[in-house]
TrEMBL record:
<dbReference type="GO" id="GO:0004592">
    <property type="term" value="F:pantoate-beta-alanine ligase activity"/>
</dbReference>
<dbReference type="GO" id="GO:0005829">
    <property type="term" value="C:cytosol"/>
</dbReference>
<keyword id="KW-0963">Cytoplasm</keyword>
<dbReference type="GO" id="GO:0005524">
    <property type="term" value="F:ATP binding"/>
</dbReference>
<keyword id="KW-0547">Nucleotide-binding</keyword>
<keyword id="KW-0067">ATP-binding</keyword>
<keyword id="KW-0566">Pantothenate biosynthesis</keyword>
<comment type="subunit">
    <text>Homodimer.</text>
</comment>
<protein>
    <recommendedName>
        <fullName>Pantothenate synthetase</fullName>
        <ecNumber>6.3.2.1</ecNumber>
    </recommendedName>
</protein>
<dbReference type="GO" id="GO:0015940">
    <property type="term" value="P:pantothenate biosynthetic process"/>
</dbReference>
<feature type="binding site">
    <location>
        <begin position="149"/>
        <end position="152"/>
    </location>
    <ligand>
        <name>ATP</name>
    </ligand>
</feature>
<dbReference type="InterPro" id="IPR042176">
    <property type="entry name" value="Pantoate_ligase_C"/>
</dbReference>
<feature type="binding site">
    <location>
        <position position="61"/>
    </location>
    <ligand>
        <name>(R)-pantoate</name>
    </ligand>
</feature>
<comment type="similarity">
    <text>Belongs to the pantothenate synthetase family.</text>
</comment>
<dbReference type="InterPro" id="IPR003721">
    <property type="entry name" value="Pantoate_ligase"/>
</dbReference>
<feature type="binding site">
    <location>
        <begin position="30"/>
        <end position="37"/>
    </location>
    <ligand>
        <name>ATP</name>
    </ligand>
</feature>
<keyword id="KW-0436">Ligase</keyword>
Length: 282
């Protein structure tokens, strides 16, 4: 696996691969790699000649300085994981100045309102930061295909919108959520949980499964109330939000209309660790 730490050397390498007609799949990450990331690489390896990844903890998408500071970083371990996975041909580990030549600030995007729902309400500026770094990475890496996890479903939909609006020549693919054995969505943040908290957090997935059972059987307000009740009884957990939204518009619904696809979205704080999850309802 090739490791690139500067824009220039990576650019030269990419140009050579493109001249040889190689199809490139790309999955950007913030490191602290786990099996969820590997599932993106695995999907990319099936549809491309070469798989590229990047590791960059993007400061502009953190609205909370403590969260940015506490974000787990372990490049040495990440490189081992990448080598062992055998899916990734090249990894880009840029400097801040490679992605932000004019200083660390976000562009301002109009994602047709998608950016104002859910995470947009609780993490102001988050999607401007995500858009800025993903746009720059896609321009630099020039992949044919790019892979994003459904774990961050709103991010996936927003990146599809970004690519559509900017007419970037890349196809965006969503990859199913990879879960721990107990059902908890795998996340770099899970490392900050104690063993007991990690086990207790399976309640998030179990709740989503229950919501799926209740889908189109009881009303949306009734489901919302039951979810609230579940988390009121959990010590050390605070439900930040739960909502059922239309998969296309991401707007919260209070009724299940025919012909629409719905997804349940949830964010729970387990002490100070913010855990996010979602599930398509059927
Ligand atoms: P991150 O490093 O957290 O920014 O994530 C990088 C990419 O991996 C994003 O597209 C995430 O949605 C995706 N990802 C993270 N965790 C998972 C997971 N458990 N299953 C599937 N994709 C994931």
């Amino acid at each position: 696996m090739k490791i690139f730490k500067s824009k220039k050397t990576f650019h030269d390498y990419i140009e050579r691969q493109r001249e040889m007609g190689k199809k490139i799949g790309f999955a950007p990450t913030m490191g602290a790699l786990h099996q969820g990331h590997i599932s993106l690489y695995e999907a990319a390896s099936k549809e491309n000649d070469l798989v590229f990844s990047s590791i960059f903890v993007n400061p502009t998408q953190f609205n909370n300085a403590a969260d940015l500071e506490k974000y787990p970083r372990n490049i040495e371990n990440d490189l081992k994981i990448l080598e062992n996975s055998d899916y990734v041909d090249a990894v880009y580990i840029p400097e801040v100045s490679d992605l932000y030549p004019d200083g660390l600030k976000s562009k301002s995007y109009d994602f047709d309102g998608l950016e104002n729902e859910m995470e947009g309400k609780f993490r102001p500026g988050h999607f401007d930061g995500v858009g800025t770094v993903v746009e720059e990475l896609l321009l630099q890496v020039q992949p044919d295909n790019a892979y994003f996890g459904e774990k961050d479903f709103q991010q996936l939909v927003i990146i599809e919108k970004l690519v559509e609006k900017l007419k970037l020549p890349v196809k965006i693919h969503g990859v199913a959520i990879y879960r721990e054995k107990n059902g908890l969505a795998m996340s770099s943040r899970n490392e900050r949980l104690s063993a007991e908290q990690r086990e207790a957090s399976k309640i998030i997935y179990e709740t989503l499964l229950k919501v799926n059972d209740w889908f189109r059987i009881i009303t949306v307000p009734e489901i919302n109330q039951r979810v609230k009740d579940i988390f009121e009884d959990q010590r050390g957990m605070v439900l930040e939000y739960f909502e059922i939204s239309d998969e296309q518009t991401l707007k919260e619904t209070d009724f299940f209309y025919k012909g629409h696809n719905y997804r349940a979205f949830i964010v729970v704080f387990v002490n100070e660790v913010r855990l996010i999850d979602n599930m398509h309802l059927e």
